[in-house]
Amino acid sequence: MAGRTGLEMLDSFLVVAEELNFRRSAERLGLDQSALSRRIQKLEALLGFRLLERTTREVALTQAGRVFYQENAHLLTRYDASVAAARRVAEGKSGLVRIGYMAFAATELMPMAVARFRQSHPHIETELRYIRTQGQKIALANDEIDAGYMIGPFEHSEYHAVTLTDEPLYAVTPRAHPLLHRTAITPADIAGQDLILGDLREWGEYRWRLNDMFSAEGVALKVRVEASNTLALIGLVAAGLGITIYPESLIGALGRNVEARPIHHPAFRSRTVLVWKRTNRSPQVRAFVDTARSLPPR
Amino acid sequence: MAGRTGLEMLDSFLVVAEELNFRRSAERLGLDQSALSRRIQKLEALLGFRLLERTTREVALTQAGRVFYQENAHLLTRYDASVAAARRVAEGKSGLVRIGYMAFAATELMPMAVARFRQSHPHIETELRYIRTQGQKIALANDEIDAGYMIGPFEHSEYHAVTLTDEPLYAVTPRAHPLLHRTAITPADIAGQDLILGDLREWGEYRWRLNDMFSAEGVALKVRVEASNTLALIGLVAAGLGITIYPESLIGALGRNVEARPIHHPAFRSRTVLVWKRTNRSPQVRAFVDTARSLPPR
DNA sequence: GTTTATTGATGCGTGGATTGCATCATGCGG
DNA sequence: CCGCATGATGCAATCCACGCATCAATAAAC
Asked: Ranges for the HTH lysR-type domain (chains A, B) (predicted)?
């Protein structure tokens, strides 16, 4: 066991305490009898009390030696076990991946990746934390999560980022809404509509992105209601108070009280990127990222 | 803490894992930053995987490093505790004294010594084992007991032995026995009496001694009954089946159904000696022996 | 943008520590 | 009384861990 270097003195004593014979112990330890003799002497000098009574014919433990042996007999075993555990982690055979995700990844992207990952890497634990895009950046910086699903694009020299989806936005309306009659919805069509959006606290990044897109098209948003809860928001739409805008991957999860139509415009899309620190070279994270990016696009 | 020499590498890593800064850690460890840097490098090389991610501005634990730290964080604490425990034993401030005793020491000698010893050395445990004289010699040789009360005399170059008592033997009779009328009992008076003695297995050494004493006086013993139990033996005496012979210290514990008279003869005495190995230099044993021999003679 | 300070890593020379070999003193078994 | 085993020790060679000085990289200060 090469890994226990630094613990030779203790190891030596434990061996001698078992063998009660310096020569045999020295052989077992792979060194000269004299060296072993001096190691024990040094250990005793260091401790300040004798561990062994030696005569030329016999070696016996002192009472203190007995206590010292009993207390530390399993220390090396425990240490070796800790080395083995750490090595498994280092080799990616076990460990923990902490994943942050925001709402748009919650329905398909993250669950599918996690499901497949847990199947292909059953020894690696996954920890999921719902955090919005901005929070994930902080969490990543603080090493509170290992990887995060966030709204893209994201570029930073200290981070890796892969784009997992680039999906169209949909207008979500009550059933039988006038917009549904159009063959194609454009950003301009939204201009006249009452909007129901999440508030800034809840939507954060997404809300800013929407503002940017529409103002780039010269469209002013008419926000009728703000909600801080997704279910409530959908309920408000279904009740006819207005329409909202969601990316494609959420549409399937909306229920039957609302309808949805894609907005045809190259800029009106939402990217989801998976981000992790460049310095985080752990094979667990690498494996998770590989799994996540290899999922078939919808 | 000087006692943890030999564990510097582990200690160093634990400190760095807490400080996440080599210079501060080096200062805390009392060595140069470069030395610390190399220690960690060596530890990593030894383990075969990295424990820390370093940039010139920042140090972070790898996942394996986190595991390694958690597993070993308390290792040094435990080790230090074991050193302290062993040191207490080495200094005689705690520990265990295992004491063997035979019947003649069971009534006064051993209990008084143990009582006083436990009072004066409350941190030292005492373990009592009833073993007859011959068995104690074996137990001492095998380090199964630390000291033994046995029938003396005892002389051996590898052992210390102190004589604690040299007491007269008593003839123990039923109440109103003819012997009680004599002013002084001699060995010859026993000759005509029916005797009740312990069997060889139970009395062992004592039985041989009695045989020796009487045959030296030319007296043949007339053993009427053998018993293997002290209470039964006294019962048999009380019932009038014969008399027995006990040393003085047992007389007080005999009860009211029997009487006792000393045998007046210089050879008819019983010594009790306390014996321990010369190689056993533990301060606990030394302290117990000192207590035992300093008790006031009865 | 330039400077300054701080980070961890590294080249190097020194001194103490550790090693193996040979040998010693001691005690057991024949 | 003589081997044979034990653990301890003298000694020389070697190793290796240390501190000093310095480097490259980078963050902070101006």
From this structure: 13-62
Q: What gap in Å lies between CA A3 and CA B43, rounded to an integer?
A: 8
Residue of B nearest to A97 (CA): B63
Q: Tokens 């999440």, residue? A: A198
Residue the block writes with tokens 């445990």: B125
What's the pLDDT at A298?
Answer: 54
Whether pLDDT at A3 is above 60: no
DSSP-derived pairing of the beta strands B147-151 and B269-277: antiparallel
Alpha carbon distances (Å) from B248 to A45, A281, B29, B108, B183: 50, 84, 66, 11, 18
DSSP state of B4: G
Identify whether the C-beta of residue B174 lies closer than 8 Å to the C-beta of residue B238: yes
Nucleotides on chain C within 7 angstroms of protein Cβ: 6-11, 18-22, 25-28
Mutate to test the interface with B, among A5, A49, A67 (most CBs of B within 10 A): A67
Query: Does the beta carbon of B276 lie under 8 angstroms from any beta carbon of chain A?
Result: no
pLDDT in tens, A142-181: 788 999 999 978 888 788 999 999 999 999 999 988 889 8
Helix (H) or strand (E) run with residue B224 in it: strand B223-227
Which structure tokens are listed for B41?
A: 């490098």
Name every residue whose Cβ is closer than 8 Å to that of residue B176 and which is 6 or more positions away in sequence.
none
Question: Which residue type occupies B67?
Answer: V
Q: What is the pLDDT of residues B11-47, one digit of tens each?
A: 999 999 998 999 999 988 898 899 999 999 999 988 9
What is the reported pLDDT for B195?
A: 93
Residue pair A62/A73 in contact by the 8 Å Cβ criterion: no
Q: Which of A82, A145, A279 to mutate to test the interface with B (most CBs of B within 10 A)?
A: A82
CB A173 within 8 A of CB A179: yes
pLDDT band at B1; cut points 50, 70, 90: very low
Integer Rg of chain A from CA: 32
- From CA A262, how far away is CA A269, in angstroms rounded? 10
Q: Considering only CA atoms, which of B5, B67, B16 is closest in space to residue B39? A: B16
> What value does the mean pLDDT of chain B take?
89
The helix/strand/coil state of B152 is coil
Of B214, B181, B217, B216, give the one whose Cα is nearest residue B195: B214
Torsion sign, CA atoms B119, B120, B123, B124: negative
Predicted confidence band at A2 (pLDDT cuts at 50, 70, 90)? very low
The whole-angstrom separation of Cα A11 and Cα A33 is 15
Strand D interface, A 22-81, C-beta < 7 A: 22-24, 33-34, 37-38, 40-41, 54, 56-57, 59
Asked if A68 has any chain B CB less than 8 Å from its own CB, the reply is yes
| C-alpha A87 chain-centroid distance | 19
pLDDT in tens, B147-180: 999 997 888 878 899 999 999 999 999 998 888 9
Contact A251, A60 (CB under 8 A): no
Question: Could you tell me the pTM of the whole model?
Answer: 0.73
- Domains belonging to chain A, first-starting first, are 3-73 (1.10.10.10), 95-164+271-294 (3.40.190.10), 167-269 (3.40.190.10)
For residue A297, what pLDDT band results from cuts at 50, 70 and 90?
Answer: low
